[in-house]
Amino acid sequence: METNQATLAALLSEMGANLADYAGKDITSTSPIDGQVLAVLRADNADQVKAKIDRAHAAFLQWRNVPAPRRGELVRLFGEELRLHKEALGKLVTLEAGKILQEGLGEVQEMIDICDFAVGLSRQLYGLTIASERPGHRMMEVWHPLGVVGVISAFNFPVAVWAWNAALAFVCGNSVTWKPSEKTPLTAVAVHALFQKAVARFGSDAPVGLAELIIGDREAGSQMVNDKRVPLVSATGSTRMGRQVAQDCATRLAKTILELGGNNAMIVAPSADLEMAVRAITFSAVGTAGQRCTTLRRLFVHDSVYDTLVPRLKKVYAGLPIGSPLQKSTLIGPLIDHAAFDCMQTALAAARAEQGQVFGGERVAVAGSEGGYYVQPALVEMPAQSNVMQHETFAPILYIVRYTDLQQAIALNNDVPQGLSSSIFTTDVREAERFMSDSGSDCGIANVNIGPSGAEIGGAFGGEKETGGGRESGSDAWKAYMRRSTNTINYSDSLPLAQGISFDI
Ligand code: UN1
Q: In this protein, which residues make up the domain named Aldehyde dehydrogenase (predicted)?
């Protein structure tokens, strides 16, 4: 505890974050590494949440008038702060979320990448010109800032998810209020401090309140979701939470970007490069201790390669280095908490009851980290895609099912309530194309010869069905953060009506 707390203090001070500003008794940040308390913070009460949204709204009214390329300059400066403090923030992610150092750094790199993307975007918020049916008329489409964007983020990507949303929101002319997971408030405090450093360098045209951090529980989040000055809520987390956000926003007809549960599959076809498949399966099934929304959870293996692939996987799984994520050699860090461990054990018991053969899955003792929940990642051979496989369990459990026919495997890929990510390993171009075709995978992400996790920020990120349907990050995801205005301009000296209607007065 002493060591982690000393590390925490050093990291926060390097990033210019002052924990005294947040000290309190409401929200406890616990390190999953050893289960020890890192800090206790105060929660914002209803008045404080309201004041933050007030400030964010006032900031929006100014920020929308700052030219977009200038807005991009602020995001560029923020990207510089992230580059300078990548090690510190990455390590703090490790300390508070339990990711291994490589993945903590990777998460900060995703923030840097989206900043770069957003800076370019700040000069490319393109609209269309449209042919008018009337003589002497011009039609065009213009994108305008939207307002305060409310962001709800989860513990497993405690800093990158905010950045995907915020970097786009800022260049689009919006302000942002952020309600991070109660499990990871410290990383949010650090990011907020780094953003304020960028604001200080930027100058006075960045209004106070451009970025507001709301520390609190579900109630604080709910207050933000229900505030009519927040036209867009972007929420990442459980399907249960997302359903509530969707209902609340629907009541006031606000927009949402929902990034909810995933139940991602991979098909390993007869022609697959099995060496590559083993590496991709392992990274996507056990990386982040199975706690990514893109984690590989279901594996469909063709009958002809099953007996080669599955024993190889078991061999790799048996040798995985499990331990403190601060140790360079570790590949599997802890689960976030005791509750996550219980969910994993419940799912494994259900799998056994459904005739699953479980390999691994037990708790692993790590010396010096007795309070942490470390597990041996589980491989579960299932006779069929049964009930337990319909659910996302946020832990490293990989269910394996044999298949004989590609159409059947694609049907299994799609036969779950979630629709985030999917992949196929094949060197047969016909199979690859079928998997990505209109009658192929129904997910937001469909990959060939890579796993379902670890997406780059340049593509639109999100999924269908219970995953929520929203898209964040690259491509044209920025459009969700703006409002579209269609303008028709008459530069003639007559007033012809559309559809040829005659209306003489
Ligand atoms: C998440 O787990 O919430 O594709 C997001 C990936 C990461 C994002 C994961 N870029 O795995």
A: 25-484
Tokens 């099934």 found at:
285
Residue 47: count other Cβ atoms within 10 Å of its Cβ.
8
The Cα 408–Cα 355 span in angstroms is: 21
Q: How far is the CA of 12 from the centre of ligand 1 (A)?
A: 25
Task: Specify whether the CB–CB gap between 440 and 446 falls below 8 A.
Answer: yes
**Residues 6 or more apart in contact with residue 186 via CB below 8 angstroms:** 8, 12, 19, 29, 38, 39, 41, 92, 95, 96
End-to-end CA, the chain: 83
Helix (H) or strand (E) holding 401: strand 397-403
CB of 453 sitting under 6 A from ligand 1: yes
Residue 138, number of CB atoms within 10 A of its CB: 14
> Is residue 157 in contact with ligand 1, taking CB distance under 6 Å?
yes
Check: CB of residue 226 under 8 Å from CB of residue 252: yes
291-346 pLDDT, tens digit per residue, is 999 999 999 999 999 999 999 999 999 999 999 999 999 999 999 999 999 999 99
CA distance 387 to 376: 23
DSSP letter at 129? E
Q: Cα separation of 331 and 361, whole Å? A: 16
What is the distance in A from the centroid of ligand 1 to the CA of 404? 31
3-state class of 406 per DSSP?
A: helix
Of 294, 336, 447, which is best to mutate to test ligand 1, by the most ligand atoms within 8 angstroms of its C-beta? Answer: 294
User: What would the pLDDT profile of 17-45 be if each residue is shown by its tens digit?
Assistant: 999 999 999 999 999 999 999 999 999 99
Give whole-number Cα distances, 330 to 4, 100, 334, 374, in Å.
17, 7, 10, 12
Q: Quick one: the chain helix, strand, coil %, rounded to 5?
A: 40, 20, 35
Rg value, the chain, Cα: 24
Tell me, what's the ipTM?
A: 0.97
Task: Give SS3 for 70.
Answer: helix
Residues that are catalytic:
259
d(CA 162, ligand 1 centre) in Å: 12
Ligand 1 pocket test, pick from 153, 257, 264, 461 with the greatest ligand atom count within 8 Å of Cβ, gives: 461
Give the number of other Cβ atoms within 10 Å of residue 167's Cβ.
30
